[in-house]
Amino acid sequence: MLGRLYEGQECSAARTLELVGERWSLLILRDAMFADCTRFSQFQSSLGIATNILAKRLDGFVEAGLMERRQLGGSGEQGDYLLTEKGLALKPVIIALTEWGDRWLRAGPIVYESKSDRRRVEVQLRRADDGAEVSLHDVVARLRRVRPTRHRRRRRAIGRSRSASSRT
Q: What residues have CB less than 8 Å from 13, skipping those under 6 apart?
């Protein structure tokens, strides 16, 4: 059985999958984002997910900062699970997965629209610096250049000055 962690992977995609890559995770988040589900019973009813699995996923989302739990009035009353900004930032991922499924599998019943004017929205690739649209074929992956920290820069400068002084 495939484990939940990708320890050999030094990749943001792998770290994200550790958090939301389990079978029910994105569906729970989808229902929180688009179906106004906030209560345990609403998620359970909407998804038909086993209660132990749902409890584990919601607790994990709270622990990871994707959701926060707000207890309502009485102690016996269900609390709300509310998306945080961190959780809400996964919205384009849900939209992109839906768009892909509509195109390559079978179109589903959901379209995404702007709340303010009800116009369709879609996920697009754009350059970070000027916002120009980019083709899928034009996107490549490169290693991120890591800027040396102040401590590393100082050590390098010291190392260079030592090697320069040893040559004289």
A: none
Residue 160's pLDDT band, with cuts at 50, 70 and 90, is low
- pLDDT tens, residue by residue, 94-132: 999 999 999 999 999 999 999 999 999 999 999 999 999
How far is it, in rounded angstroms, from Cα 29 to Cα 24? 9
Where are the strands (E) in the chain, listed by range? 67-70, 80-83
Measured distance CA(1)–CA(155) in Å, rounded:
46
* Domains along the chain with CATH numbers: 12-89 (1.10.10.10)
Contacts of residues 36-44 at CB distance under 8 Å and 24 or more positions apart, as own/partner, are 38/80, 38/81, 38/82, 39/78, 39/79, 39/80, 39/81, 40/78, 40/79, 40/81, 41/78, 43/81
Percent helix / strand / coil, the chain, rounded to 5: 50, 10, 45
Residue 79 is classified by DSSP as P
Q: Which residue has the tokens 């959901």?
A: 110
